[in-house]
Amino acid sequence: MNDRVIRHEAMNTTFSLRLAGDAAGLAGDLAFELFHELDRLEDKLSRFREDSEVTRINRLRAGESLRLSEECDACLRLALDLHGRTGGRFDVTLGRAIEHRKGGGTGPAPASTGQLALDPTEPMISCLEPGREIDLGGIGKGFALDQLNRRLDEWDAPDSLLAAGASTQLARGGRRWPIELRGEAASHGLELGEAALSASGTRIQGAHVVHPDPDWRGTGWTRLWVIAASAAEADAWSTAAMLMDRDELLGALAGDSALRAVFIEQDGEPLQLGEAR
Fold first, then answer.
1. Helix H or strand E encompassing 195
2. Model confidence over 159-200: pLDDT tens digits?
3. Tell me, what's the pLDDT at 227?
């Protein structure tokens, strides 16, 4: 049976849902539901929307607080959790440094100063000291895919492949989907089932790859792919993995049950670390 693909532009990329043939009849209703959800999430999480929650967080002054929506609160708490799990490599508060890199700025990136704090019991964030700016570019699209996945659960729509552009893909249901890891010199094929895959690299997402330590000298990785349990985790880990050497990546694979495999392009071929299950 033929698969059905529906697409929607959001978060500066093209989201897509590929439905197996036996579920393709749901496509029209699902498109309305899922695309409305994407637009709603972008309105909350994009730092480029004037009235988004992230923009309002970035405008907080010392002593000010902002009550958060359920989605923004969940995304920020997951980002904080992943900050710890990646040894600080993944940091959504480096917005100023990321903007400096994306804008082609010369010289050192702005120093990481200031402090934001999430309330431990309430969906609330406070600015203790100005200077930090939130940029969810390394987790927002994956978080959105996970939210769409929950909507698909409500519709009982198995066997589908969600994607946010070419960077992050999430497979659900019993079907295993053929995926091609396209490197600079070679490609590697695998089958993705009940897991997420995210890619990162200096050519595609280099502007988002900023190390918290300004004296960091780099690993030399130009392209890598991560398989993880959720799309948000795959998204964040693919950013963090660009900042880790081989031994650190092997340690992360052994220590984090959500992280399943890392593929690094080396000598023109994807080198697999971990088990791609």
1. none
2. 899 999 999 999 998 899 999 998 777 788 999 999 999 999
3. 97
The two three-digit tokens of residue 59, written as one number: 């405008």
Q: Determine the angle formed by the axes of helices 70-85 and 27-45, rounding to 10 degrees.
A: 70
Burial of 110 (0-12, 13-18, 19+ CB in 10 A): middle
- pLDDT at position 112 is 67
Could you tell me if 135 and 47 are in contact, meaning their C-beta atoms sit under 8 angstroms apart? yes
Measured distance CA(48)–CA(95) in Å, rounded: 12
Three-state secondary structure along 53-91? HHHHHHCCCCCCEEECCHHHHHHHHHHHHHHHHCCCCCC
Let me know how long the chain is. 277
CA distance 43 to 51: 8
Q: Which residue in this structure is represented by tokens 């349990």?
A: 229
Q: CA–CA separation, 269 vs 272, rounded Å?
A: 9
pTM to 2 decimals? 0.89
- Cα separation, 187 vs 100, in Å, equals 32
Is residue 235 within 8 A of residue 198, CB to CB? The reply is yes
Give residue limits of the domains in the chain: 53-129
The CA distance from 197 to 243, in Å, is: 18
Residue ranges in the chain modelled with pLDDT below 70:
1, 22-25, 95-112, 203-220, 266-270, 274-277
Question: What pLDDT is attached to residue 128?
Answer: 97
Contact 124, 67 (CB under 8 A): yes
